[in-house]
Write a structure and sequence with these properties.
The structure is a single chain. This protein is α+β, with helices and mostly antiparallel strands. It has helices at about 1-15, 30-40, 70-100; strands at about 45-50, 55-60. The chain has one domain. The protein has three helices and two strands; from the N terminus they run H-H-E-E-H. It has a two-stranded antiparallel sheet with strand order 1-2. The termini are far apart.
């Protein structure tokens, strides 16, 4: 029982902490920038997403009338895709740095 308590304590103490939002200030003009970006492509702005210190624009085709749920799903998918891409780029950079220091 004592070992289980110690193991559980170590697991809890070593768990990761994930921050919410952005550590950096998000530009107050981001919604206008996104609106212009979408409009220039002939689309409507559906959402502005802030994830992993990045601002993302979610645009929709003007002829479609998506539900708020569809907009939320699209925004989440776009944000997660941005995070995955950023993590992959960081990992590739880390690997290149390690390889360069070995040679």
């Amino acid at each position: 029982m004592k070992q289980a308590f110690i193991a559980l304590s170590l697991l809890i103490l070593s768990s990761c902490y994930a921050t919410v939002g952005s550590k950096r200030a998000v530009a107050s003009g981001s919604p206008n920038t996104c609106n212009n970006f979408c409009r220039d492509m002939g689309l409507d702005l559906s959402a502005v997403v802030v994830m992993a210190d990045n601002v993302g624009c979610v645009c929709n085709v003007r002829t479609a009338a998506p539900s708020p749920t569809a907009n939320a799903v699209a925004a989440a998918q776009a944000g997660m895709a941005t995070i995955v891409q950023q993590q992959q780029e960081e990992e590739e950079t880390r690997q290149r740095t390690q390889q360069a220091t070995r040679h």
